[in-house]
């Protein structure tokens, strides 16, 4: 049974009530306080203080302080006036006291739930504000990046236009030079024809004179023979002439450009060599997607240029488009046949790019096969040897695991 505390002290004014309850040697951290508008309780086992107030108080504005060996209640009356006594006449009614106690407990729990709900709402509001702030920061950063990209695009466009203007100027100068050269050649030809006619007329008179004189002269002539220089430095006895001839024929076909009927394209944009060089410039500047676009347009004009496929494969490798890299590298390798010394370096580049894409897809066996194929072409390439050895170690490590 708890011990009821009755030696409490209380005072009142017109607006407030002050109640001091002694703790009787109990530590302050063991005090449990419960209050409502009409009910007060301070429990600190084995003692308990309960009070059913004469009139209601403002439970929200009231305070309870624990310290200095006592619990001090400071309560604000709802209606000003002097009570004359603290306890209600119904304080002896145990059923009523229990009902007031349960009502106070329910209100306290309700207040705790409302406080938790308010705390959660404040937390969600803070999180919402934090998310909004992060979105603002991201939008600012996105705008900055987009602005920088636009500046780079504008710069690349300006450089392209300047390059086009330079090419147009050079083309005009070349055109003027060719016209001048053609006029000079025509003048020289006219002069030569005139001289030939003069000599021919003179020869006719000489032949007529010889016939009249009965003198028959035998004329001697001179035939000049020129030999076409071989396109390969190897001697005929050491070369594979059919393969070399096939390669030369494929190169000649690769130089043929398709005629695209598009009025929006300039003369330079119909030139695959120009587009390839421009793609190389974009690649060197790190603008790999622009380089892919340039090479793709060039391939519409000339789908037999192996360098376009190989260069586009390098771009796809940078952009992590690994399957496209493998596809373009394979097309370049197909166009680089038959294998002759003149296309060896290009074959090595295409094979190594495909092998690198295989390795990045963790297809190390296929990648090693390509690196070994490249080493057969350039057996003294130390970098290829080192890379092939690293791939072998990866494959062996996977097999041991």
TrEMBL record:
<dbReference type="GO" id="GO:0003341">
    <property type="term" value="P:cilium movement"/>
</dbReference>
<dbReference type="GO" id="GO:0120293">
    <property type="term" value="C:dynein axonemal particle"/>
</dbReference>
<keyword id="KW-0539">Nucleus</keyword>
<keyword id="KW-0963">Cytoplasm</keyword>
<feature type="repeat" description="TPR">
    <location>
        <begin position="348"/>
        <end position="381"/>
    </location>
</feature>
<keyword id="KW-0802">TPR repeat</keyword>
<dbReference type="InterPro" id="IPR007052">
    <property type="entry name" value="CS_dom"/>
</dbReference>
<dbReference type="InterPro" id="IPR011990">
    <property type="entry name" value="TPR-like_helical_dom_sf"/>
</dbReference>
<dbReference type="InterPro" id="IPR008978">
    <property type="entry name" value="HSP20-like_chaperone"/>
</dbReference>
<keyword id="KW-0677">Repeat</keyword>
<dbReference type="GO" id="GO:0005634">
    <property type="term" value="C:nucleus"/>
</dbReference>
<dbReference type="InterPro" id="IPR037894">
    <property type="entry name" value="CS_DYX1C1"/>
</dbReference>
<dbReference type="GO" id="GO:0036158">
    <property type="term" value="P:outer dynein arm assembly"/>
</dbReference>
<feature type="domain" description="CS">
    <location>
        <begin position="3"/>
        <end position="87"/>
    </location>
</feature>
<dbReference type="InterPro" id="IPR019734">
    <property type="entry name" value="TPR_rpt"/>
</dbReference>
<dbReference type="Pfam" id="PF07719">
    <property type="entry name" value="TPR_2"/>
</dbReference>
<keyword id="KW-0524">Neurogenesis</keyword>
<dbReference type="GO" id="GO:0007399">
    <property type="term" value="P:nervous system development"/>
</dbReference>
<protein>
    <recommendedName>
        <fullName>Dynein axonemal assembly factor 4</fullName>
    </recommendedName>
</protein>
<keyword id="KW-0966">Cell projection</keyword>
<dbReference type="Pfam" id="PF04969">
    <property type="entry name" value="CS"/>
</dbReference>
<dbReference type="GO" id="GO:0043005">
    <property type="term" value="C:neuron projection"/>
</dbReference>
<dbReference type="GO" id="GO:0036159">
    <property type="term" value="P:inner dynein arm assembly"/>
</dbReference>
<feature type="compositionally biased region" description="Basic and acidic residues">
    <location>
        <begin position="173"/>
        <end position="195"/>
    </location>
</feature>
<dbReference type="InterPro" id="IPR013105">
    <property type="entry name" value="TPR_2"/>
</dbReference>
<dbReference type="InterPro" id="IPR052004">
    <property type="entry name" value="Dynein_assembly_factor_4"/>
</dbReference>
<feature type="region of interest" description="Disordered">
    <location>
        <begin position="173"/>
        <end position="202"/>
    </location>
</feature>
<feature type="repeat" description="TPR">
    <location>
        <begin position="272"/>
        <end position="305"/>
    </location>
</feature>
